[in-house]
Amino acid sequence: MLKKLICLQLLTLLWLTSPLSAQEIQKPNILFISVDDLNDWIGCLGGHPQAKTPNIDRLAASGVLFSNAHCAAPACNPSRTAIMTGISPHKSGMYDNGQKMREVLPKAELMSKHFSNHGYWSAGSGKILHYFIDAHSWDEYFPKKESENPFPFTLYPENRPVNLPRGGPWQYVETDWAALDATDEEFGGDWLVSKWIGEQLSKKHEKPFYLACGIYRPHEPWFVPKKYYEQFPLEEIQLPPGYKEDDLEDLPPAGKRRGPNRYFPHILKHNQWKQGIQGYLASIAFADAMIGRVLDALDKGPNRDNTIVVLWSDHGWHLGEKQHWQKFTGWRVCTRVPLIIRAPKGTPGLTQGTQAGITCTKPVNLVSLFPTLTELAGVSKKESNSGPSLVPLLKDSNAEWTTPSITYLSEPGSYGLSTEDWRYIHYANGEEELYDSKADRYEWNNLAENPKYADKLRQLRNLGPTEFAPLKKASIKALTKIKWNKLNKPSALAPASKPDGSTFDVFFINQSKQPVQLFWMDRAGKPKPYGGIAPGKTQLQNTRPGAVWYITDKSENALGYFSIDDRSAKAVIPAK
Hints:
Elements: H1 2-17, H2 19-26, E1 29-35, H3 54-61, E2 64-66, E3 69-70, H4 76-85, H5 89-92, H6 101-104, H7 111-116, E4 121-126, E5 140-142, E6 177-180, H8 184-187, H9 190-201, E7 209-215, E8 222-225, H10 226-229, H11 253-258, H12 263-269, H13 273-300, E9 307-313, E10 318-319, E11 325-326, H14 332-335, E12 339-342, E13 358-360, E14 364-365, H15 369-377, H16 391-395, E15 405-408, E16 415-418, E17 422-426, E18 432-436, H17 454-463, E19 480-481, E20 485-486, E21 504-510, E22 516-521, E23 527-533, E24 538-543, E25 548-553, E26 558-563, E27 569-573
Parallel strand pairs: 1-7, 1-9, 2-13, 3-14, 4-5, 4-7, 6-8, 19-27, 21-27
Antiparallel strand pairs: 2-12, 9-12, 10-11, 15-16, 16-17, 17-18, 20-26, 21-24, 22-23, 22-25, 25-26
Helix pairs in contact: 3-13, 9-13
C-alpha cells in the first residue's frame, strides 16, 4: 500500500512538473490582424486630422503602440513575405510585387505552419499573402484554402471606372473611388472576413489558435458603402499634412525619379485629389469598423483573456506627398505603419502581459513579428528569422534598443533606414537622403549635402547592410497571361499602338504548329516586323504599356494580336 502511495505521488509530481503539460495549459491564442495599404492616418498616430479609427485606437489604448514601426518593403508581396517567413528581403531576395514567393522561397515555413507544427490550429481569412493562400500552410481558411483565392465575394460597380478615368494602360485598373449604395453585408468583402473570423473567436477550440484576419481596405479600389463617405463631406476634406508643393528640389536624381509619378498629375487634371482623399478616409473608416466587429467578437467570446492581439499594416501610402501617389518609396510616409501588440497576463514569454496605453518610440520592423510571437507563445523559435524579438520592448518600452529598422526597395542596394530620431535613405547608385525625424516629421529638408551633418550621415550609412541577395525574377510559368485577340480575316490588321509608360519584358510563346511572324503596330497603325517565332518556341520582347503586337502566319495572313497592359507578362499564341 505504501509503495502504491509513493508511486501515485511520484506520478502526480511528474505530471505537475512536466514542461509539456505546463506549456499546453499556458499556450495563448493569437489573433493576427492585417490591414492593407494603411499609412499613419489613424487617430492614435495622428497622421491626418480627419481620420476616424475608434476601434484601432481602443486596441492601441489597451496594449502597446509602436509609433516608429516600419515595413520590411514598401510593397505588398515582399512585405507580407517578410512578415510570414520572418526573413528580410535582403536575405531572401524577395523585393518586388512581380516575384512569386514559392519560386524565391520554395521551402520556407510560414508563421501559420510553424504554429500549426507546435500544437496550434492555424486558420485565416482574407489577404495575408500577396493574392494567394498557400494552402498547405493552413489548417483552415475562408474562402476555402484549395481555391488559392483569399477574397470572398465583394460588391463592385457594374460600370467602371466611376470617378477617375483611366489615363492609359500605365494606370492600375483599380485606382478609382466611389460611395456605394449598399449595406456592409451587401458589400461583402471585409464584412464577410470579419464575420468568419468573429465566428471562430466566439467559440472554444480544442487547440490554441493562430487566427489571421486579412482586412483588404483601404487597398484600392476605394469602393465602400456610402455611410462611410458621409462621415467625410467633400467640402470639408483637408489635404495631406505632409504635402509640400516644392518638396523635390533638394532630392538627389534617384529620389526625383522615385517621387513624381503619373498618378498624381492625372488625379489633379481630373480635379479628383480631394475625392481621392475622401475615398481613402472612407475606406479606412470601413476597415476600422470591420476590425471593431472582430474585436467585439473576441471581447464577448470565451477567448478574451488568453489571446494575444497583433494589428499591422503591410506598408504606407502616398496621397500627393513628394508628388507621388501609391507606394514603392523609401520615405517615411510609405514605410511607417501602424503596429499594435496586446498580450494578456500569463503569456509564457511575458507573464505580466502588456501594459495598457503604452507608446514605444524605438525603431522596429514588421520582420520582427515572427520571432516576437514565438517568444510570447513559448514555442520554438525559427532560426532563419532575420529580426530581433520585440518582447524586450513589450516589457519596457524604454529598454536599450540599438537595432535600426530597414525598409528595402525594389532593387537590391536601395533601402530606407530608421533610428529613433533620424531617417536615412540609400539608393543603389550611392545617392543619399538624410532627415531629422523629430524636427522634420514630413521629410521636407534633405540634410545629406549639408556638411554640418556629415558625421551623422556617416554613422547612419555604417548601420546599413552591405550585402544583398539578388532579385530573382518570376518564371514565365508564373507570369500573367495576356488576352489573345483572334482575327478572322487574313487581311485584317490590329489596332495602332498607344505606348505610354516604362518598358518591361513580355514573353511571346508560340503554341501553334506553324511558324508565326511578330509585328509591332506603330502609332499610325502600320505593322513593323520583329522577326519570326518557330513552333513551340518563345521570344523575349521589351515593350511598353499600350503597345499592340500583331501575329501573322508565315505568309503574313492575320492570326490575332495582343494589347500590352502595365506589367511583365506572357503572350501565348494558341494552338488553334
